[in-house]
Backbone:
């Protein structure tokens, strides 16, 4: 009811505003002189966009047969897209409008029109003020990793944060406006910092940070969405590590947000999602003294279609709460009906692989203790099916620091292709439900594309107490009882509309739906969720939604920032590549 009233108020006050965001060719669109003067205020850091793939298209003014091959090669890596002002790692977020392939169509329709290549908080403010004043659609690109398309948008001005550089290290930290110092190691990183460089720089100082599996993910989207890691069961979410952020709010103010000032924003920015409440220009996060790290990759396999496969997996993951209690976390992958020519597996099999981790804090945490714990669980899971499964728990490897595992096991990531993913967060209740129910849900969710189960929830009994700064955040409330984050992905070939629609429908209505039914009261991880998630407001943010919406309205009453699926985005819709107000209210 509260939401409904708030929205009525917003709609009433908004009815005098233009129906759509300003686009070129309309009277309100800034003149060339105004763009030039913006560029001058930005010391020349304004980019007029031409699609990066255009160099491969003879019809385009930027056609360049000399540079095209490098663009085609780079396109296949995530790192290349993160260095481009407008490219997204997944092609669908630029709507496949200009792939680096002369046989494909090419237009700028799926890209922003202008980019602020920001190097300072002042540049960000200048861009935000310009977009607000001229009512231009405003978006934010850190790296372009986003699985929901929130960092791309047509007919927009984009703030690109990649060139906001700078890292500094602190032996203790006093947030602005606080009278006491927090006695932890801390790192201040500018918004352009990627997790790989942050990890490495921390490692060089015998420090370890909470970071995910991808080196090119940036601090902006990762922290604002929550940020899970194999160290989350030990230290909490990445957002739980934040001591302070510097942000530019949509009203153009540069603010330090922390537990002592701007507490509402501090709460919202840690889990409320990117490009919604403002633009992060730098973050200060806690770092931890490094520690031994133990890891192994264990497998289960059986002949394809073995009716016991999903029951065995269900039994296995019913032991995840017990592994969590021993301090063990995991990234695990279920892939039914696969062959592996590299491993000489030419007959299809149903396979499970888990990378298990034991951040070691006590002398009793040894390679043998990890192997023993896993062996027991694998044996228990498979006991009912003698002779049907192959399983392997190889001797774990001990690394002197987490980063050494990370460096040796995380190669450069791929880019390109059309993909979306879906998510559901599972707690002890769902993991320990009866085997038949769990197996049925997992099978429906993962029998075709396969699924990933990440044992990375902060709901466990790890050896460290997680301090929730400022009394907590959105993310600490949503992930409170979570043990496993489930991810399912679907792909389709570019320009194959039928397959695209079929895959999207299967993801939303079949695969994720099976997990929704298993865990109806549970949530999804906003950074790795289905962009078409029904009722996304409740699914991503639960009971926090009203408070998040009120904060959005307070700092961004005219919707300078807009994205989907994001807090407070009701009342707008993209129609023919233009962001417009929806005339008659909206559904929640
Ligand atoms: C290969 C891969 C592996 C991943 N692994 C993990 C993992 O292990 N753990 C995990 O938690 N997540 C993981 N993710 C998901 C990741 O957290 C999200 O994709 C996240 O949104 C990336 O943030 P970004 O800033 O790098 O990307 P972007 O696409 O640039 O931005 C994502 C969102 O954040 C906004 N944003 C970016 N910068 C800022 C800023 N400075 N201020 C305000 N808003 C900003 C964007 O507008 C957009 O809404 C992975 C993603 C990929 C593609
Ligand atoms: C902004 O100025 C720089 C330096 O003068 C120039 O290279 C760039 O093309 C300009 N950008 C736009 C959009 O005109
Ligand atoms: C963005 O700005 C940085 C810092 O000035 C500069 O090195 C880089 O070349 C610029 N990128 C583009 C695409 O203009
Ligand atoms: C790094 O920190 C760990 C944990 O405190 C300590 O055991 C180790 O000796 C340190 N290593 C270096 C090189 O300082
Ligand atoms: C297994 O994969 C093969 C080859 O991709 C396919 O023909 C077959 O239908 C699949 N079987 C099942 C049960 O999915
Ligand atoms: C696969 O088989 C080939 C030929 O028998 C052999 O040379 C290769 O080492 C095998 N690979 C693995 C991973 O077992
Ligand atoms: C790791 O150490 C903790 C004590 O700090 C202990 O409770 C736990 O059982 C150990 N886990 C393993 C797998 O060794
Ligand atoms: C994507 O492109 C198709 C044409 O290929 C167009 O019909 C559609 O409107 C575009 N959608 C968006 C969101 O840009």
Residues:
């Amino acid at each position: 009811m509260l939401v409904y009233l708030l929205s009525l108020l917003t709609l009433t006050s908004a009815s005098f505003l233009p129906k759509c965001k300003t686009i070129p060719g309309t009277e309100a669109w800034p003149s060339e002189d105004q763009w030039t003067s913006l560029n001058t205020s930005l010391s020349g850091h304004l980019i007029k966009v031409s699609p990066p793939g255009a160099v491969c298209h003879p019809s385009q003014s930027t056609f360049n047969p000399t540079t095209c091959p490098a663009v085609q090669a780079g396109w296949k890596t995530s790192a290349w897209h993160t260095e481009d002002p407008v490219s997204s790692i997944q092609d669908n977020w630029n709507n496949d409008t200009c792939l680096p392939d002369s046989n494909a169509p090419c237009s700028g329709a799926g890209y922003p029109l202008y980019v602020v290549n920001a190097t300072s908080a002042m540049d960000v403010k200048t861009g935000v003020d310009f977009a607000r004043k001229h009512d231009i659609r405003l978006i934010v690109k850190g790296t372009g990793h986003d699985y929901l398309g929130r960092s791309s948008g047509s007919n927009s001005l984009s703030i690109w944060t990649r060139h906001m550089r700078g890292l500094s290290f602190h032996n203790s930290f006093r947030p602005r406006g606080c009278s006491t110092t927090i006695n932890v190691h801390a790192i201040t990183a500018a918004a352009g910092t990627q997790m790989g460089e942050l990890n490495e720089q921390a490692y060089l100082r015998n420090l370890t940070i909470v970071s995910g599996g991808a080196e090119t993910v940036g601090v902006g989207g990762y922290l604002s969405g929550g940020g899970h890691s194999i160290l989350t069961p030990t230290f909490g979410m990445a957002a739980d590590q934040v001591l302070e952020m510097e942000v530019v709010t949509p009203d153009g103010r540069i603010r330090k947000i922390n537990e002592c000032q701007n507490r509402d924003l501090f709460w919202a920015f840690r889990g409320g999602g990117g490009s919604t409440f403002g633009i992060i220009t730098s973050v200060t996060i806690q770092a931890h003294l490094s520690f031994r790290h133990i890891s192994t990759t264990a497998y289960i396999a059986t002949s394809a279609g073995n009716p016991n496969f999903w029951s065995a997996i269900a039994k296995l993951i019913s032991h995840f709460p017990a592994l969590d209690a021993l301090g063990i976390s995991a990234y695990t992958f279920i892939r039914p009906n696969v062959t592996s020519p590299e491993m000489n597996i030419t007959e299809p099999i149903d396979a499970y692989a888990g990378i298990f981790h034991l951040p070691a804090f006590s002398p009793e945490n040894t390679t043998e203790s990890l192997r023993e714990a896993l062996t027991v669980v694998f044996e228990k899971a498979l006991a009912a099916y003698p002779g049907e499964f192959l399983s392997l728990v190889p001797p774990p490897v001990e690394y002197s620091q987490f980063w050494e595992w990370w460096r040796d096991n995380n190669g450069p990531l791929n880019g390109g292709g059309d993909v979306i993913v879906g998510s559901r967060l599972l707690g002890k209740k769902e993991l320990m439900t009866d085997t038949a129910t769990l197996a049925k849900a997992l099978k429906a969710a993962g029998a075709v594309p396969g699924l990933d189960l990440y044992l990375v929830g902060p709901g466990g009994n790890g050896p460290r107490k997680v301090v929730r700064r400022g009394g907590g955040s959105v993310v600490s409330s949503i992930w409170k009882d979570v043990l496993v984050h489930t991810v399912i992905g679907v792909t389709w070939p570019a320009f194959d509309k039928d397959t695209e629609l079929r895959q999207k429908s299967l993801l939303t209505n079949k695969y994720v739906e099976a997990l929704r039914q298993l865990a109806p009261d549970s949530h999804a991880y906003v950074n790795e969720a289905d962009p078409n998630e029904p009722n996304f407001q409740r699914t991503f943010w639960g009971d926090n939604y009203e408070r998040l919406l009120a904060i959005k309205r307070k700092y961004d009453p005219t919707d300078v920032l807009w994205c989907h699926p994001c807090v407070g985005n009701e009342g707008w819709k993209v129609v023919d590549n233009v962001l417009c107000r929806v005339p008659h209210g909206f559904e929640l």
User: Anything to note?
Assistant: The first strand starts at residue 46 and ends at 48. The mean pLDDT is 94. Residues 292-400 form a domain with the Alpha-Beta Plaits fold (CATH 3.30.70.1150). The two ends are 11 Å apart (CA to CA).
